[in-house]
Design goal:
- The chain contains 24 helices and 8 strands.
- Helix 13 runs parallel beside helix 15 and helix 14 packs antiparallel against helix 15.
């Protein structure tokens, strides 16, 4: 009897053991942020007990918890080891849902390490399972992670699509913290597109939500993005203020999260001329990115330090560091960083008098810039064409199916009229919807095509040839200082035009700055060239315009209006008329009375007309006329566009 009781008691204890071990894992999960060492010890104890009892599911769960601890403390290689082992256990048990969750967690680690293609492979495997399970919570989290990757890769349209998918699921399950994180992410997309008013709007929404639910880490993330925004707006004191707010609200072990605002502070201090503070922030950012294991992002604070050394005249040391950093960037295929480093190397070599190396690096910068822009635009065009053709085929299939149904229903005479009418209405509705969607796709495709044609029409070969010839002339004459100054302005102009071509709107101040650089370069070729820009006290910082709006017409005045002359006069007037921005470009050149408009000129005119139509529909006004008064000559260009301001 006693033996039976002892056996019964032992069996009861064994039955209760799985529940006890599960409770310990829940406890370990809660300890991850407060006491990671105790969390690991607890999870390892559960792992050993589960192996002793032969409970495979609990062993897999314990491995997953250990992986989470190492992931949270930025020990990514250890985290991957435990996650992979947990995944093997789940797969052997046939547990598809837990396998997908582990894939998602592995993807987050690869994302943190900057290995984006590996991360996307994991996410896509997880997506298949979550869709089959109709798991809205996981799908929302997954699409947000995908959006972050696409944003970091500068594939902004894809990033926005994933954010909107994530927002749909977050709204359905009423997850306010997830909604705020998505709004925060969308703000970054608009920031990169230079749509600063929309970016600020989403940041304010996210901040209000985080403050309402008391989510300090979320607030810190919003403050980081506000620092990013004010960096683009060149409000450097605000950058430092919001970056400090972000740092004070973040966990000291969130290395990557701390590294970004430190980097932003470094850039702001550098622009303000506070070099000691800039160096301190760049070095701390480099240390934090390195500790987080982010091999791509660590390159950015290094380039900040290189720019600091260059500005302080330490060219030899800047060159040494730039060459080492370029090798690091090439090894991790950080395309944007590689492009910028070639430009930096060109500037440094010119300062050192190494003109051949300067030209070689400048060529590499332009080649990579063209490659990146053309690849992105071509990819978007191909995507739009594919979607357009697919929807056309789908409409045809739907139409055929509806026709077949109507033919079949004709057999039943009694209900013919009602059903045929309803089917006809359905076809019309589907046709209208599909027509509208195809029209939108066509418009978007036209817009991208116009942008690509605009890029090809800018910086025409004659100007590039003449600019480089001028530099060659200065070098040949031994005027090194003037050659370096000229190339510095030329490099800045090239970079501005390439960067702005990928954006829908930029501030009027940036547009005028680029135009001024262009005119200053042309003055070296045309000594009698004079220009005047009148803004009539309008706020150029807050007004947004399409990029490269005026440069094609100014170029036309110089290349064709002043042909055979040493220059002439160009006047650019900007004014605010009934909430419209009025732009007037006048020159005193030859005009078009004696010969037809050139190919390049007509191309610039047509492209500008297309862009204005796509952006503003019928709300924009554009004319090009020849002065016809007896005592005047030249051309007048007038452009009127709706006033768009940064909120």
């Amino acid at each position: 009897m006693v033996i039976c009781f002892l056996v019964w008691g032992q069996n009861q204890s064994i039955k209760q053991e799985p529940q006890r071990l599960d409770s310990l894992l829940v406890y370990a999960n809660r300890l991850i942020s407060s006491d990671p060492n105790l969390a690991v010890d607890t999870a390892k104890y559960v792992q050993n007990q589960s192996i002793r009892l032969g409970i495979d599911s609990i062993e897999a769960n314990s491995l997953r918890v250990i992986g989470r601890v190492f992931s949270a403390t930025n020990r990514f290689d250890s985290a991957l080891f435990y996650f992979m082992n947990a995944k093997d256990r789940y797969e052997s048990q046939g547990n598809r849902t837990h396998t997908a969750i582990i894939d998602m967690e592995i993807g987050i680690i690869y994302r943190q390490k900057g290995e984006y293609s590996k991360a996307m492979d994991c996410y896509l495997r997880a997506e298949t399972v979550f869709k089959e399970d109709k798991n809205k919570v996981r799908l929302g989290e997954l699409y947000r992670s995908m959006a972050i990757i696409k944003s970091r890769e500068n594939k902004l349209k894809e990033a926005l699509q994933y954010y909107l998918l994530s927002e749909k699921y977050a709204a359905q399950i009423q997850s306010f913290s997830e909604l705020a994180a998505i709004q925060n992410g969308i703000s970054r997309i608009f920031n990169k597109q230079a749509r600063y008013d929309k970016s600020l709007q989403y940041l304010r929404k996210a901040l209000a939500t985080y403050q309402k639910i008391g989510h300090k880490m979320g607030e810190a993330s919003v403050y980081t993005n506000m620092g990013d925004l004010y960096l683009f707006l060149k409000e450097y004191d605000s950058v430092i203020y919001y970056s400090n707010l972000s740092i004070s609200n973040k966990s000291p072990t969130n290395y990557r999260g701390l590294a970004i605002p430190e980097y932003n502070k470094g850039l702001a201090f550098l622009e303000l001329g506070q070099t000691d503070s800039a160096a301190s922030s760049f070095r701390r950012s480099e240390y934090l990115f390195d500790t987080a294991g982010d091999k791509k992002s660590v390159i950015y604070p290094k380039t900040g330090l290189i720019e600091l050394y260059r500005k302080e005249g330490e060219f030899a040391y800047a060159l040494e560091e730039a060459e080492k950093t370029l090798q690091d960037a090439l090894s991790v295929q950080a395309a944007d960083a590689i492009r910028n480093l070639y430009s930096t190397l060109s500037d440094i070599h010119f300062s050192l008098g190494n003109y051949k190396e300067a030209f070689l690096n400048q060529d590499k910068f332009h080649a990579l810039s063209d490659s990146l822009l053309n690849e992105e635009t071509s990819r978007q065009l191909l995507e739009l064409e594919t979607r357009y053709e697919t929807e056309k085929k789908e409409q045809q299939i739907l139409s055929l199916e509806q026709e077949a149904k109507i033919s079949k229903l004709q057999i039943t005479q009694q209900r013919f009229f009602t059903i045929a009418s309803l089917s006809f209405i359905a076809i019309l509705a589907m046709g209208a919807v599909t027509f509208y969607r195809n029209r939108q796709l066509k418009l978007t495709k036209q817009k991208l095509t116009a942008e690509q044609r605009l890029l090809r029409s800018q910086m025409n070969p004659h100007f590039l040839f003449n600019a480089l010839s001028s530099v060659h002339s200065y070098i040949y004459e031994g005027d090194k200082k003037r050659a370096a100054e000229y190339l510095s302005v030329f490099s800045e102009l090239s970079r501005d035009i390439l960067d702005q071509s990928a954006q829908e709107f930029i501030s009027l101040e940036r547009e005028l700055s680029t135009l001024t650089n262009y005119l200053e370069l042309q003055q070296t070729r045309f000594p009698d060239l004079n220009y005047q820009i009148n803004t009539e006290n309008i706020d150029t910082e807050s007004i947004l315009v399409p990029p490269i709006l005026m440069q094609p017409f100014v170029e036309n005045s110089i290349e064709h209006g002043f042909k055979g002359e040493k220059g002439g006069n160009i006047e650019i007037n900007l004014s605010d008329l009934d909430q419209k921005l009025c732009v007037e470009i006048l020159d005193d050149g030859h005009g078009f009375s004696s010969k037809p408009i050139s190919n390049h000129t007509s191309k610039a005119i047509n492209i500008t007309r297309e862009r204005l139509l796509l952006l503003y529909k019928k709300d924009a006004y554009f004319t090009l006329t020849v002065k016809d008064r007896a005592n005047q000559k030249g051309v007048v260009v007038k452009i009127e566009i709706p006033m768009k301001r940064l909120v």
